[in-house]
């Protein structure tokens, strides 16, 4: 059944984040005719159009591609790299309808920076998704700009919820959220890599070790996704007193794993703030 989103949505740039949201929305039933996307190369545009059945414009083939897509949209998702977001916002400004909602999924680009690059009063919403959005299992934050009304925030929530769980947060918390959920999938993949490497050191065949680690991390994720699931309760259920898992967890604690994870997340958040400063925010 198609999801009930009446607006025309344009995706300017289809990198990992915008591409994930687009995939999630279409998988949830958004009609392809309600979507326009832009990418740089003509070959990528043709491939994306074949894959999803949506209209895809190439900015190298048509210098007005982004303006054309923006002019047709009720909602525009900006998904190019952070260094290019403000130039893109300035490029499309003349083509935007006054009520078109501009949603940015770029890390490090603040609402103030976006609003300064767009027409006065243009509704802006900042979002931070993560890559599981392509499976409809993402976490996507939304933060309101000065002209984003509660009704527009509800519209953004309805659109983005097709790609996962949507949480509304004040903008000052975006870097912290990004350090947990934005970068978080890489942490899980890194854990799977480390588990596989540990299996090889214990004598397992490399392919078998990778399979065991992959399926274990994926299976644990499914358990966490169950309604009412709690990570601490699930861990304790597997950790028998004086058993093998208890010994492993105790070793992780002795080696300072929780502090290592916290330090990594702090470094990610600090880097996001530094990139914002580098880009003029």
TrEMBL record:
EC number(s) recorded for this UniProt protein: 1.5.1.2
Chain residues that bind NADPH: 66
Keyword Transport: no
InterPro entries tied to this protein: 6-PGluconate_DH-like_C_sf (IPR008927), NAD(P)-bd_dom_sf (IPR036291), P5C_Rdtase_cat_N (IPR028939), P5CR-like_CS (IPR053790), P5CR_dimer (IPR029036), Pyrroline-COOH_reductase (IPR000304)
PROSITE patterns for this protein: P5CR
Keywords: Amino-acid biosynthesis, Cytoplasm, NADP, Oxidoreductase, Proline biosynthesis
Domain Pyrroline-5-carboxylate reductase catalytic N-terminal: 9-107
Positions contributing to NADP(+) binding: 12-17
Family: Belongs to the pyrroline-5-carboxylate reductase family.
NCBIfam families cross-referenced by the UniProt entry: proC
PANTHER family in the record: PYRROLINE-5-CARBOXYLATE REDUCTASE (PTHR11645), PYRROLINE-5-CARBOXYLATE REDUCTASE 3 (PTHR11645:SF0)
Record's protein name: Pyrroline-5-carboxylate reductase
Organism: Arthrobacter subterraneus
The organism's taxonomic lineage, starting at the top: Bacteria, Bacillati, Actinomycetota, Actinomycetes, Micrococcales
